Amino acid sequence: MIEFQLITAESPSQAVQLATSSKTAQQGADVRFVAGGTTLIDLMKLDVESPTTVIDINRLDLAKVEKQADGTLRIGALVRNSDLAHNSDVARDYPLLSQALLSGASAQLRNMASTGGNLLQRTRCPYFRDLAYSECNKRIPGSGCAAIGGLNRTHAILGTSEHCIATHPSDMAVAMMALEAVVHVKNAADERDIAIGDFYLVPGTTPQNENVLKPGDLITYVTLPTATPNAKSHYLKLRDRASYEFALASAAVLLQSEGGRIRKARVALGGVGTKPWRSVAAEHALEGKSPSEAHFRAAADAALRDAKPQSGNRYKIELSKRCIIRALSVAAAQA
Amino acid sequence: MSRQKGQDVKPKTSPERLSRRDFLSQASTVGVAGAAATLAGPIAAAVSEPLSQQTTVDGATVIPGTVPVTLRVNGETHHVRIDPRATILDTLRETLNLTGTKKGCDHGQCGACTVHINGRRVNSCLTFAAMHQHDEITTIEGIGRPGNLNPMQAAFVEQDGFQCGYCTSGQIMSAVAMLQEPWGPEDKDVQEAMAGNICRCGAYPNIVAAVQQVRGNGRRNG
């Protein structure tokens, strides 16, 4: 780990002011905010992240979950994953989010990891995390991708490019995609609201850029829209061991039915995409239909229609489909 | 990952590069001095500086190089100087000589370093000590002593919840914190709650039995 200057920010405006000079808010940033530290410090130890200035934002007043007058739920960026999962409003109105959060990491990590930090989790691609590999377009733009043709059993099949096939590892963000969360960002000039569907970038030719954040941007809140009435939802995570492991495939699904027909469907996938992956095609395949396994299967087929498998992860297409079908079946069976 | 502190590191090409033994010996000396400083008033005054002498940028506290920090560990206040890169784990072991907390993976993947911060269990390897000057840190040394074991420590002994013992302090700190968290009563709930603590000896059934004994859900006692 290289030396850095640690600064404790006392206010959001001070924090963003201090970060404005960073050359980027993406890979290679020389200024980083630290909240829980569970991603950043891990990657600093590996020298994958090497900020020269680290701004501790833990003292900022951003650790509350607040029901708003309009029925939306405002989640402070510093709310810890464990606190968010067990928050009474979240557990009652957005059980999908609680489930996703509790399926991620361990109890210790959930006590540390923040809402804002979880959105910004970095990929677990072993070639990204290990400087011994010189080929990683995400770390070193233009260097190549060691995962393509390498060990890529855990890599993405959706949203990939010939430059990068790394998966986004978050469970929380997958549920937030299905719940259509809004990310609030503050910088020195203004504040803006970004629909989570517009927050992440696919790798394309610039896999070093993972989201729309610019230098000095600080995530301050995430807002969940008013909960869908009579929604049935389920988060299903499939992985190599029963707990404390990243998803090989996961699905966050939400169904609202009326008169035996699905009126509203939301389907988002984890473990298979280069970003938390919402499938509008699957949602369209469900809406207006009856909640039957045949329609669930059609939705799963639609979700994976554009999947591009690599040498070692063709199994993920079928795994992801079965994950979607199972999640929809479990949700539909709820009382 | 490089664990050496900045001032100790010589370029790898240098013929004078510190040997591991030299480094450990030196680190140990520093550790003892640090611990002594916390016990002796005049020495403590010499190694720590009042917060008011820290420089500021735009009103924010700036911590360049090795920095003076005040840490609360097991109810005691320690004034020490540390590298900002030092995690709580490294500070406990190498500066405060509290070696009950173990370094396993050093990346939040094994749980051996679990301590409590303000009563909540965390991986002490993944957070910088300088970020916790206002927090109460509790380690395995703070929850029980020989002759006066914490009930969870006693249960681990009774249920044989370990073999080599390296993960045990993390397991016990995790288990103690788990008692304050909303988990169900079943063995499977304990397994999920304790998933962040890896035991490569595979003492899991006995660990679950120890935790369940303390929770009053024991089924394998006697």
Helix/strand class of chain B: alpha+beta
The low-pLDDT segments of chain A are none
If classified by CATH, what would the architecture of the domain at 232-332 in chain A be? 2-Layer Sandwich
Number of E-type strands of chain A: 12
- Let me know the CATH homologous superfamily of the domain at 65-143 in chain B: Beta-grasp domain
Largest protein interface? A-B, 36 and 41 residues
Distance between the termini of chain B: 45 Å
- What spatial order of strands do you see in the largest sheet of chain A? 4-5-8-6-7
Strand residue percentage of chain A: 15-25%
* Global morphology of chain B: elongated
Strand line-up of the largest beta sheet of chain B:
4-3-7-5-6
Output the structural class of chain A: alpha+beta
The tally of helices of chain A reads: 13
In N-to-C order, the SSE pattern of chain A is: EHEHEEEHHHHHHHEEHEEEEEHHH
Order of helices and strands of chain B: HHEEEEHEEEHHHHH
**CATH topology (level 3) name of the domain at 65-143 in chain B:** Ubiquitin-like (UB roll)
> What is the CATH C level class of the domain at 65-143 in chain B, in words?
Alpha Beta
Helix content of chain A: 25-40%
Give the terminus-to-terminus CA distance of chain A.
52 Å
Task: Characterise the protein shown here.
The complex is a heterodimer of chains A (335) and B (222). Chain A is an alpha+beta fold. Among the domains of chain A are: 5-58, Uridine Diphospho-n-acetylenolpyruvylglucosamine Reductase, domain 2; 232-332, Enolase-like, domain 1 (2-Layer Sandwich), CATH 3.30.390. Chain A is built from 13 helices and twelve strands. In chain A, the strands form three sheets. In chain A, strands 4-5-8-6-7 form a five-stranded antiparallel β-sheet. In chain A, helix 11 (280-286) packs antiparallel against helix 12 (293-303). Chain B has 222 residues and is an alpha+beta fold. Among the domains of chain B are: 65-143, Ubiquitin-like (UB roll) (Roll); 151-215, DNA polymerase, domain 1 (Orthogonal Bundle), CATH 1.10.150.120. Chain B has helices at residues 20-39, 41-47, 88-95, 140-143, 151-158, 168-178, 187-193, 204-215; strands at 56-57, 60-63, 67-73, 76-82, 114-117, 120-123, 136-138. In chain B, the strands form two sheets. Chain B has a five-stranded mixed β-sheet with strand order 4-3-7-5-6, with helices on both faces. In chain B, helix 1 packs across helix 2 (41-47). Chain B is elongated, with a radius of gyration of 20 Å. Mean pLDDT of chain B is 80; it is low at 1-16 and 27-52. The A-B interface holds A 1, 3-10, 14, 17-18, 34, 36-38, 41-42, 45-47, 54, 56, 58, 82, 86, 105-109, 111-112, 242-244 and B 1-2, 6, 57-65, 67, 84-85, 87, 106-108, 111, 114, 120-123, 126-128, 130-131, 174, 177-178, 181-182, 191-193, 195-197. Strand 1 of chain A pairs antiparallel with strand 2 of chain B.
